[in-house]
């Protein structure tokens, strides 16, 4: 479990730096928008391209990935139904809330969890590809269409195609599928630029915590608590049921699916919410709460299911 604790500590430290900068008034709340734009238009596309270009796209069709996909669909649908009936009619806000209920922090916490809790790092790559090639494009497509509003049909249809994250993901997947060898002089600067993506997102997240307090009145507390409960408790439970009883996977894969289902919400959700100016507080607070809850939940899963 040492690796998991280290992973959490690294994330917490960078977030703390952002929070301290905001509290010391070195940066303002508006400055987080600059960090977010740099991450969204520059660093994140570089990161996604390099990750996907070096991955094996075929692993997306494994049983473990099917469990992860169905788990996400289940918690997202539960959130959409409840939020639409009880909380809000805002499509963009609902889309952000539903995604925070199932989109996992595979990049930062998933790797140490896979190595030190599951004992096999192979589960990280497929989940990253599932989220980048399937889940993120769907969310960004919805947000692009909502943002387009009364634009022409052609403008709405082509809006996602102008999204830098989607373009980078598609190009990276094509490189992986074709086996194209990218020269090192091309990959090296992309690697440097992509390395800034996660720190920029974490710093922007930390700066946001220096503003309004989490779970403040009028922030959508019921939406936040619903998404947090779905991500922290319902998601791993659904993953376990699917792996154990529906697909009847071996015990070690059931354990892996359940542990990965307990990962907290990814910082990407706050980046997307901030970029599209919808559900920012919901995304921020769900990320914070699920990150706090994920460690005890994963420890419980490891205690109950470790083969």
TrEMBL record:
Membrane spanning stretches: 6-22, 34-54, 60-82, 94-117, 123-143, 164-182, 188-212, 224-247, 286-305
Keywords, in A-Z order: Cell membrane, Membrane, Transmembrane, Transmembrane helix, Transport
Transmembrane recorded as keyword: yes
Compartment list: Cell membrane
Keyword presence, Cell membrane: yes
GO cellular component, one term: plasma membrane
Pfam families cross-referenced by the UniProt entry: Mem_trans (PF03547)
Membrane topology: Multi-pass membrane protein
Chief localisation class: membrane
GO BP, sorted A to Z: transmembrane transport
The family this protein is said to belong to: Belongs to the auxin efflux carrier (TC 2.A.69) family.
Protein name: AEC family transporter
Organism the protein comes from: Agrococcus jejuensis
The organism's taxonomic lineage, starting at the top: Bacteria, Bacillati, Actinomycetota, Actinomycetes, Micrococcales
């Amino acid at each position: 479990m040492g690796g998991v604790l280290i992973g959490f500590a690294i994330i917490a430290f960078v977030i703390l730096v952002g929070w301290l900068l905001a509290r010391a008034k070195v940066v303002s709340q508006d400055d987080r928008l600059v960090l977010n734009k740099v991450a969204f238009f520059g660093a994140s596309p570089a990161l996604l391209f390099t990750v996907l270009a070096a991955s094996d796209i075929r692993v997306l069709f494994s049983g473990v990935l099917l469990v992860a996909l169905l788990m996400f669909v289940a918690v997202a649908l539960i959130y959409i139904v409840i939020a639409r009936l009880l909380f809000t009619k805002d499509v963009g806000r609902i889309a952000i809330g539903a995604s925070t209920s199932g989109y996992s922090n595979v990049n930062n916490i998933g790797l140490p969890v896979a190595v030190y809790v599951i004992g096999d790092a192979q589960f990280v790559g497929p989940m990253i590809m599932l989220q980048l090639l399937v889940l993120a494009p769907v969310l960004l497509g919805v947000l692009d269409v909502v943002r387009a509003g009364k634009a022409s049909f052609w403008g709405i249809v082509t809006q996602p195609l102008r999204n830098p994250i989607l373009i980078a993901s598609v190009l990276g997947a094509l490189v992986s599928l074709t086996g194209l060898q990218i020269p090192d002089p091309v990959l090296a600067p992309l690697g440097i630029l992509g390395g800034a993506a996660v720190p920029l997102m974490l710093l922007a997240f930390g700066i946001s915590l220096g503003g309004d307090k989490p779970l403040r009145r009028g922030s959508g507390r019921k939406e936040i608590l619903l998404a947090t409960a779905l991500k922290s408790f319902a998601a791993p439970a659904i993953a376990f049921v699917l792996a154990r009883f529906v697909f009847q996977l071996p015990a070690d894969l059931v354990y892996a699916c359940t542990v990965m289902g307990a990962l907290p919400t990814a910082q990407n959700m706050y980046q997307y919410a901030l970029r599209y100016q919808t559900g920012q507080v919901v995304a921020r607070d769900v990320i914070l709460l699920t990150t706090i809850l994920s460690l005890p939940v994963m420890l419980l899963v490891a205690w109950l299911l470790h083969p």
